């Protein structure tokens, strides 16, 4: 190859640069900075070599070292990441550990990085789409407090009775493990825990807890909605669990801030229950017998629907049956048929409720009525149809007849008051809410953070 023919440049590992050489090179670079800026525009018209020195003249000695230093100095620094003092002073690329931008409600020190650089979001192993949420791998101290509250208190408060040892194990171990595997469910648990803590713990920082609750429910919902668009069997159970959490969260969070329109609020909750069917039905045969799913939805042994119907075959609730006459006020045939259907189903639920044992969760029974509402009836509730809203108040009366739980709270009274205000325009219909009014107004209410026990042991298998 001719002497005047240029040799191809090979990229070799960057040589060691002593601190003295580095300082000298940086001084030379600052002196030549203006000249480099003048040539920058021309250099941008052609693609530079990875270690090209066109932006600054070569020095007569140590050109390789200077090129390496120039390469370091010209790498763009991600300003979202902090740089150590030396790299700021020398204006070079910094390899200081990245500090993750994580959510923290009240503890800024929870974001302090240690000397071992944590993995960035792109570097984290991603075993499933559920883990695509920033910060899921690391919980802040306030979030850990919420997790502790969930495991020590909150999940036990969701039922109107003291849960058995077996049930406690499922909630504490299996459900929590599923939440770790599917962070959208974990966010739901933490949000519900924050609301429960704000509602039941004296002296709790309510505002901070509400901010945490809102943050977690939004983060969980973002992923939950994506999964609704692409349901798969592996996520069916955690998606169902998240659906129930969302429903409970909506009822429970209202205890801290009364909804402006309780009828609109309960209609929204009805919609959430309808969404549970969308999550479950495609995979019903595969998940109906799983331990966690059956634990959440099944009643106690001997309280299956067939047994309840057999025990109550001669029983009735005349006040609910009388609602058939109320539907006569509806001129539209479709409206009347929808209300008659829901009235009949509500009557069946009321009879079953009287024959259910104390070992069963009566709310699962009552809410099954709401979960199966027809679309047309829900539209009537949304439109504040007076007859449909009266039927909803009878549903509220069944809630008021049940053992108290914190997340139901004041909903029966709110729905009664809202319906009374609605019917003020049609006073001839006010008589139809006399029965639910008696039940709801005679209800004694107190905040229940730990449900009452019944006659099974809470310890031991």
Automatic annotation (TrEMBL):
Coiled coil: none annotated. GO terms for molecular function: DNA-binding transcription activator activity, RNA polymerase II-specific; zinc ion binding. InterPro entries: Sterol_Uptake_Regulator, Zn2-C6_fun-type_DNA-bd_sf, Zn2Cys6_DnaBD. Residues 1-10, 46-60, 105-117 have a biased composition (Polar residues). Residues 1-67, 105-138 are annotated as: Disordered. Residues 24-36 have a biased composition (Low complexity). This is Sequence-specific DNA binding RNA polymerase II transcription factor. It comes from Didymella rabiei. The lineage of its organism: Eukaryota, Fungi, Dikarya, Ascomycota, Pezizomycotina.
């Amino acid at each position: 190859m001719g002497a005047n023919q240029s040799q191809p440049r090979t990229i070799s590992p960057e040589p060691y640069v002593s601190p003295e050489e580095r300082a000298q090179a940086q001084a030379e670079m600052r002196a030549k900075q203006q000249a480099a800026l003048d040539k920058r525009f021309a250099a941008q018209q052609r693609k530079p070599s990875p270690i090209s020195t066109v932006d600054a003249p070569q020095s007569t000695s140590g050109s390789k070292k200077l090129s390496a230093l120039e390469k370091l100095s010209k790498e763009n620094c991600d300003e979202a990441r902090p740089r150590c003092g030396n790299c700021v002073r020398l204006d070079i690329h910094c390899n200081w550990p990245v500090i993750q931008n994580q959510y923290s409600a009240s503890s800024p020190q929870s974001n302090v990085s240690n000397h071992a650089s944590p993995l960035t979001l792109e570097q984290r192993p991603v075993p499933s789409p559920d883990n695509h949420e920033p910060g899921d791998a690391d919980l802040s101290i306030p979030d850990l407090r919420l997790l502790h509250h969930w495991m020590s208190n909150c999940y036990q408060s969701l039922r109107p009775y003291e849960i058995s040892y077996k049930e406690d194990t499922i909630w504490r171990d299996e459900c929590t493990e599923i939440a770790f595997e599917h962070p959208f469910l974990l966010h739901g648990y933490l949000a519900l825990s924050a609301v429960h803590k704000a509602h039941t713990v004296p002296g709790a920082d309510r505002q901070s807890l509400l901010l945490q609750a809102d943050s977690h429910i939004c983060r969980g919902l973002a992923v939950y909605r994506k999964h609704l668009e692409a349901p798969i069997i592996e996520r069916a159970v955690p998606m169902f669990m998240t659906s129930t959490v969302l429903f409970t969260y909506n009822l429970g969070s209202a205890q801290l801030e009364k909804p402006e329109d309780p009828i609109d609020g309960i209609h929204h909750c009805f919609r959430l229950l309808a969404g549970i069917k969308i999550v479950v039905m495609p995979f019903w045969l595969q998940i109906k017998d799983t331990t966690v799913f059956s634990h959440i939805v099944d009643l106690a042994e001997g309280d299956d629907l067939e047994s309840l119907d057999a025990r109550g075959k001669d029983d009735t609730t005349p006040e609910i049956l009388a609602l058939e006459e109320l539907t006569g006020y509806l001129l539209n045939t479709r409206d009347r048929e929808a209300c008659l259907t829901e009235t009949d189903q509500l009557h069946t639920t009321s009879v079953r409720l009287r024959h259910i044992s104390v070992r069963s969760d009566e709310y699962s029974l009552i809410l099954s009525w709401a979960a199966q509402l027809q679309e047309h009836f829900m539209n009537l509730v949304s439109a504040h149809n007076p007859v449909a809203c009266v039927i909803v108040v009878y549903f509220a009366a069944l809630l008021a007849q049940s053992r108290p739980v914190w997340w139901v709270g004041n909903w029966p009274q709110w729905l009664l008051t809202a319906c009374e205000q609605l019917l003020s325009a049609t006073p001839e219909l006010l008589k139809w809410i006399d029965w639910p009014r008696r039940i709801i107004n005679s209800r004694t209410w107190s905040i229940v953070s730990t449900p009452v026990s019944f006659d099974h042991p809470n310890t031991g298998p």
